[in-house]
Specification:
- The protein is α/β, with parallel strands linked by helices.
- The chain starts with a strand and ends with a helix.
- The chain is 36% helix and 27% strand.
- The chain has one domain: Maf protein (Alpha-Beta Complex).
- Strands 1, 2, 3, 4, 5, 6 and 7 form a 7-stranded mixed sheet that branches.
Length: 183
């Protein structure tokens, strides 16, 4: 089965393709730029974006929105993660946490899928913490500073770990179950 993934982020497409291939799902990239709504809810953002993507392609399609939620920063950057990374960079995020003893964080992802008649949402969460300094060269975004719970390496230091534990991977697995069960 082939499915469209509407995004402007080719790294997300690669992750989705690798995660869904063993499930018999081929991911095809639909280059999609969209001025997403502002909301504190990943699900609201993803649902609105998939409606716009479906309008564009008129085929079953999915989008994914994700964010890094840092405990001591009251969930910041959250749904503004891409914006914050672009403005502050990893070094800016680390400076915000410089004197914070609580470095707990979680990645969240929400996939919204439009099948032509209804929109479904699938979520994934990966708990962890923020490293003291960036480590590793794999992955993208916040991967060099995110350490998943129960591990000592960042996602950027161990991409295999990321591919098995990430918020995106978990949401993609939930999404793939909808095709197996016929939901």
């Amino acid at each position: 089965m082939e499915i469209l993934f509407a995004t402007s982020n080719k790294n997300k497409v690669q992750e989705a393709a690798e995660a869904l291939k063993p499930k018999g799902i081929t991911v095809k990239h639909l280059l999609f730029g969209h001025n997403e709504i502002r909301s504190d809810s990943l699900e609201d953002i993803a649902r609105e974006a998939v409606q716009a993507a479906y309008k564009k392609c008129k085929k079953p399609v999915f989008v994914e929105d994700s964010g890094l939620f840092i405990g001591s920063l009251n969930g910041f950057p959250g749904t503004y993660s891409a914006w914050a990374l672009g403005k502050l960079g990893l070094s800016g995020i680390l400076r915000l946490l410089q004197d914070m003893p609580d470095r707990s964080a979680r990645f969240e992802a929400c996939i919204a899928y439009h099948d032509g008649s209804k929109v479904s949402a699938f979520e994934g969460v990966c708990k962890g913490s923020i490293a003291i300094e960036p480590r590793g060269s794999s992955g993208f975004g916040y991967d060099p500073i995110f350490v998943p719970e129960g591990y000592s390496q960042t996602f950027a230091e161990n991409i295999t770990l990321k591919n098995k534990l990430s918020h995106r991977y978990i949401s993609l697995l939930e999404f793939s179950k909808s095709f197996v069960s016929g939901s």
